[in-house]
Amino acid sequence: KKMKKIFALSILLLAFASCQKDNAVKVPEDDVAFVTINNFATKSQIGTDAVLKWSKDDKLAIFGDADYNASEFVFRSGDGYTTAAFGGQKPQGEEFIVCHPSTTRCDGITLRGIIDTKVSHKMPFQTLGSLPMWGKTKDLSKVSLNGVCGILKLDIKGSVKLQSILLNAGRPISGEFLCTIEDGLFAMIGGANIVYMETAGVEVVPSEATSFYFVLPPGEYESMKVNLTDTEGEVSYLTLEDVFVIEAGVFTSVSLNL
């Protein structure tokens, strides 16, 4: 009797294990998107250090036109190139909105994202950080992204070791924004009048300009304030006298001599 019970129990355990295996959750394989950066146009020759490239920390949000629920796609390959592969679960729909960074949201009519208030100096300027970009496609194997904002290339000449740079436009230039998909109408939603960059002792020399890159909302800028703090804690309060225009997907160079 005891042997019969043990045998019956063994059969039940085997049946249970087989059932568990059959009912195990199958993790779907990632869909892959191949995404190319449409590198920003330039209003003047700014050199190859401003070519934008993907890095392994980049992530995308992809929205399908069935419901516009975000699907996060993470970096797979292409570090240091303008085209990279990203993997994730393809959203529902026939047409897709692809956004960088992955925190961007889309309802099919507008994009909602963030321009960082605090940034770090990168040299050369190649990695994207949180630069807002988007693209529309029916084929995730062929995606091109365009800039939502523009980039100010601030060229500084002088003799100083810079600890930080603060830009003040007198109106919101960082924080949350909305941008319409069809016509590119852009608006800040509150936010801060400043962008602050940590430069960690970068040496500026009089013979050759040192470049610092800031993501800014599209629009005209006049009398922008620039506060430069050196490694000794001394602050120089300056103003960009020239009026300049920031355009979506465009580098704009402005010079500042100390």
Question: What do you see in this structure?
Answer:
With about 260 residues, this protein is mostly beta strands. The longest helix is centred in the first third of the chain and has 21 residues, at about 1-20. The protein is built from 1 helix and 22 strands. About 25% of the residues are buried. The radius of gyration is 25 Å and the shape is elongated. The protein starts with a helix and ends with a strand.
User: What proportion of the residues form beta strands (DSSP E)?
Assistant: over 45%
How many helices?
A: 1
Task: Please tally the β strands and state the result.
Answer: 22
Strand order of the largest sheet: 1-5-4-3-6-10-11
Order of helices and strands: HEEEEEEEEEEEEEEEEEEEEEE
Report on the biggest sheet.
7 strands, mixed, barrel
Secondary-structure-based class equals mainly beta
Low-confidence stretches: 2-13, 20-25
Mean pLDDT: 87
Oligomerization category of the chains in this entry: single chain
Percent helix among the residues?
under 10%
In angstroms, what separates the terminal alpha carbons?
Answer: 97 Å
* Radius of gyration using CA atoms only: 25 Å
Q: Please tell me what the overall shape is.
A: elongated
